[in-house]
Amino acid sequence: MAAVVVLTISVLVLGGLIGYRGLQPARDNGETDADLKDEGSHAAAIIGDDTISEQKWVEELKKRYGKNMLLEMLNRKAIALEAKSQGIQVTQEEIQERLKKQMEGYVSEEAYYEEMQNQFGLSRDDLVLEVMYRISLEKIATLGIHIDDQQVNSYIREHPDEYNSHKQLDLAWITVDKQDEAEKILDRLDKGEDFAELARSYSTDQFSKDNGGSLGWTDEDDPFLPETVMKTARGINPGESAGPLKVPNGYAIVYVKDIRTEDTEPPQEIRQEVRQELALQQAGPLDELEKNLRSKYGARITADFPSS
């Protein structure tokens, strides 16, 4: 679920703001290297003739975000205690299934992990821990809530656009920097050259080029690919390519390898997702549950925080 990533990203974004704040000039109060020695603190950063002490850095962290971070840590402790009390466990299969869901729209598993690391500083271990926490929280929230088949069927009937059969396209593309480069590649395709080989040789998309430009099976309304690409792909037949198409990083040539239509009956995994979503709707706000569990286990903050 996207909510898992958003939860973690919110903390990391705050951390980024702290880092930005910490790199502002640090001596507008006349601080000197001698002051650092007097404080018994190591230098955390240096810019020009200015030095930011580790103590000042930590104080700024605590002042602005320390309480929120402590609450997040207490939440995790409280959820772990409640899960143990209720005999709730999270399996590796559940973790992998949730991660797989989060990876939808990425060209590969590696592309997903690289994006999370580059954009938000999240390692694989970080993502696994967040998924474990979220699943535990949801299981606790939905204890004792029963959703029957009739409720699931009703929900699916009320959301036909989401669960009716729809097309999926097996796509590949070649991206280049300039339009004339794309036109030259199109000419070579028209003369019978292999799309995959041209992608390996010329595509600028590092995630797909080694796989011959393959993007894999994507929904016909995939939100993660440029709309110009998807609109064009929907209008051509298997075995055809089209372009040049203007995309954010240059120009693209799209190739439709195959088209398939999904079954009209939602698979069991989809029905289980609907069941879980309906249960969560009945459970109420998860942040209230976190607050209640902190209280249940006697959580309290004893640290002092510098005044703003």
TrEMBL record:
Catalytic activity: [protein]-peptidylproline (omega=180) = [protein]-peptidylproline (omega=0)
Domain PpiC: start-end pairs: 166-258
Keyword Signal listed: yes
Pfam families membership: Rotamase
Keywords, ordered alphabetically: Isomerase, Rotamase, Signal
Enzyme class label: isomerase
GO MF terms, alphabetically ordered: peptidyl-prolyl cis-trans isomerase activity
InterPro entries linked to this entry: PPIase_dom_sf (IPR046357), PPIase_PpiC (IPR000297), PPIase_PpiC_CS (IPR023058), PrsA_foldase (IPR050245), Trigger_fact/SurA_dom_sf (IPR027304)
The EC number(s) this enzyme carries: 5.2.1.8
PANTHER family given in the database record: FOLDASE PROTEIN PRSA (PTHR47245:SF1), PEPTIDYLPROLYL ISOMERASE (PTHR47245)
Name of the protein in its database record: peptidylprolyl isomerase
